[in-house]
Design brief:
mainly alpha
Amino acid sequence: MDEKSMSEKEFRRYWFSGAAVIAVIVAAVATLLLAIIATARKILANAVQALGLAKEIVENTSPIWNLQQTNEVAGQLLEGAKAIESHATKLADALESPPVVAVEK
């Protein structure tokens, strides 16, 4: 037998050692892959929850976006109230002043 050739026993030992190393590597990769999948699912669940909260925020803050329109209507109401006050003041002044009596000559 040649010095460079290996015995069947050595071949099997190397083969099983290599298979064991490959099995450990495959197990590690599978474990990491399962961890990545679990993390992705958690991220998805959190994203869905965040999206639900974002929708609630939009619904709860929609009146703020209508504030400009509310301010415009309030301004119109104020102008109307001032006009009513002005007319009411003129009417009250007219009713409070003594009647003008025409003197006949």
